[in-house]
Design goal:
By secondary structure, this protein is an alpha+beta fold. A 7-stranded antiparallel β-sheet has the order 1-12-7-14-4-3-2. It is globular. It starts with 5 loop residues before the first helix and ends in a 19-residue tail after the last strand. Bound molecules: fe (ii) ion. The site of fe (ii) ion has 4 residues, from loops.
Length: about 325
């Protein structure tokens, strides 16, 4: 990997993202892909876990059981509440999601199950993502996350006590890999102060506009956040709820970031980004993890994701 220059680091601070082509080797990418293949082959999906992963506001609303009156009111407000990239919705799924922070769990695309919970297409083609603790419990992903080049990059970025808060393997399946609507990662991973969350997004296949690469609004990380996803009070009908709303961004504000297999995109916690539905015939696998600068930072107790006694957030530098 080429050394990261000061100009690139300045560019990251200016744009809120940075593309580093060739950060990982083909062999490293293939080792992750083959590891995930083995995990899928051993996957057992209990019927009650056969839940779907959606980012569409309609399903979110339905899942929250707002009811017609609530829905109409909500629509009148004209809000663009957008469902969580990192969350999932469906009957009985709340606990499966909410307790997945220290586990390796499977989440599925919409429309891949019939009403009885049987797969309509092969299950390995149905998975949306695997999360949220591959970095802690799988040796290959643990090694990649804590690799010396990632640690060196962290140091160059000035991170003093970075900890890994979550990881995800994202499939973006051909034809059905769902849209991820515009969002800021800090909506879901809130800290005091802001500006302490950093995403590492590794392309395990070439990501192009055809197979739904990431899109960003350059410089959008400097305006704070407009929306938070917080744990709902106990007894509520849903496990999380949103505070605030997402502005209606103009498509012309976004630029695509195609990237080759092995490339890394650094993502500032407050930069606005999205990806489209993958309507192509090619998948777009990626491994992503998020780091928090823990020095002088408070992790919000209202975040869906919480460190547990079994898995406190591990230091990046170990
Ligand atoms: Fe994101």
């Amino acid at each position: 990997m080429a050394s990261v220059s000061q100009d690139q680091i300045q560019k990251f601070h200016r744009d809120g993202f940075l593309v580093l082509e060739g950060f990982f080797s083909t062999e490293e990418c293939d080792s992750m892909r083959s590891q995930i293949q083995g995990i899928i082959e051993g996957m057992e999906v209990p019927p009650h876990c056969r839940t779907e992963f959606s980012t569409r506001e309609e399903e979110q609303l339905q899942a929250q059981v707002l009811g017609k009156a609530g829905l109409e009111h909500w629509k009148e407000e004209g809000r663009r509440q957008i469902a969580a990239q990192e969350s999932l919705w469906g009957n009985g799924s709340s606990d499966y999601f909410l307790t997945s922070g220290d586990k390796i769990r499977f989440f599925f695309e919409k429309g891949v199950l019939d009403k009885k919970g049987n797969f309509l297409i092969p299950k390995e083609k149905s998975i949306s993502k695997i999360g949220h603790a591959l970095h802690a419990y799988d040796p290959v992903f643990k090694q990649i996350t804590h690799s010396s080049k990632v640690q060196e990059l962290g140091r160059k970025l000035g991170l003093e006590r970075p900890v890994v808060v979550q990881s995800m393997y994202i499939f973006k399946q051909p034809g059905i890999g769902g849209e991820v609507t515009p969002h800021q990662d800090a909506t879901f991973l809130h800290t005091e102060p802001l500006g302490r969350i950093l995403g590492f997004w590794i392309a395990l296949e070439d990501a192009t506009q055809e197979n739904a690469c990431l899109w960003f609004i350059p410089g959008s990380h400097t305006n704070g956040i407009t929306r938070r996803m917080v744990r709902a009070p106990s007894g509520a009908s849903t496990c999380v709820e949103f505070v605030g709303s997402e502005p209606a961004y103009d498509d012309s504000q976004f630029i695509p970031l195609p990237i080759k297999k092995g490339g890394l995109i650094l993502i500032h916690g407050e930069v606005v980004h999205k990806s489209e539905l993958n309507s192509s015939e090619s998948s777009r696998h990626a491994f992503t993890f998020h780091v928090m600068e823990a020095k002088g930072t408070t992790w919000s107790k209202e975040n869906w994701l919480q460190p547990t006694p079994e898995l406190p957030f591990p230091s990046l530098y170990t």
